Amino acid sequence: EVQLVESGGGMVQPGGSLTLSCAASGFRFSDYDMSWVRQPPGKGPEWVSNIQPDGSTHYKIAVEGRFTISGDNAKNTLYLQMNSLKPEDTALYYCATAVSGRYVRGQGTQVTVSS
Prior knowledge:
By secondary structure, this protein is mainly beta.
């Protein structure tokens, strides 16, 4: 079964850091374009970052320079290192991909940035 499970969210003060994890099962994540998506409270989903099978990475302008996407092939796990967090980064974060033409996403992990 293809599955994505996120962890690592929490509450942090502005300027703080968090690292999110996305454990993949049922497929080898490094073979696919993997994305992090977030949904702020009361708003629609927004793409944050993605990493392609060739290792190239892309970021939403608002997070570029603060967030880093990476993966551990041995653990079949995707990460999102988030530094210099701002209140506007508050959202439900989830990882997503398309496997065999089917969109797959995890349940998400909540990130709250507040003083």
